[in-house]
Amino acid sequence: MAPERLTEGGRIDRRQVLRFRFDGREMTGHPGDTLASALLANGVRIVTRSFKYHRPRGIMGSGAEEPAALVALAGSAAQGNVVPTLLPLTEGLDVRSIHGWPSVRFDLGAVAGLVSRLIPAGFYYKTFMWPDWHLFEPAIRKAAGLAPAPDAAPEGRFETRNAHFDLLIAGAGPAGLMAALTAARAGARVMLVDEGTEAGGSLLARKIEIDGGPAMDWVARTVAELARLPNVTHLQQTTAWGWREHGLVMVQERAPGHPGLIERGWRVRARHVICATGAHERMLVFAGNDRPGVMLASAAQAYVNRWGVRPGQRAVVFANNSSAHEVARDLRAAGVELAAVIDSREGVEANDLPMRAGCQVLRSFGRMGLRGVEVAPRGGGGPERIACDLLAVSGGWNPAVHLHSQSRGSLRWDEGIAAFRPGCVAQSSASVGAADGQFGVADALRSGAQAVAAHLGVPVPDVPQVAKVPPYSIAPLWAVPGKGKSFVDLMNDVTLDDITLANREGYGAVEHAKRYTTAGMALDQGKTGNVNVIGILAGLQGKAPDQVGVTTFRAPYTPVSFGSIAGGKAGPSVLPFRHTPLTAWHMAEGAVMYEAGARWRRPGYYPRAGESFRQTVDREARAVREGVAIYDGAPLGVFAIEGPDALRLIEHACTARYGTLAPGMGRYGLMLTEDGLIFDDGVTFRLSQDRFVMSCSTGNAEAVALHLEKILQIDRPDWCVHVTNLTHQWMNATICGPLARLVLGRLTEMDLSTEAFPFMGLREGLVAGVPARAARVSFTGELSYEINVRPRDLPALWAALLKAGATEGIMPIGSEANHVLRVEKGFLSLAHEADGTVDPYDLGMGWAMARKKGDFIGLRSVLLRRASGRPRRELVGLMPEEPDTDTPEGAPITPGGQRIASEGLVTACVHSVSLGRRVGLALLVDGRARMGDVVQVRLPERCIAARVVAPVFHDPDGLRMRG
Amino acid sequence: MLLIHCPFCGPRSEIEFSYGGPAAPPRPDDPAQLSDADWVDWLTVPENRIGPVPERWCHSKGCGAWLTIVRDTRTHEILEVRHGA
Question: Which ipTM did the prediction report?
Answer without folding.
Answer: 0.97
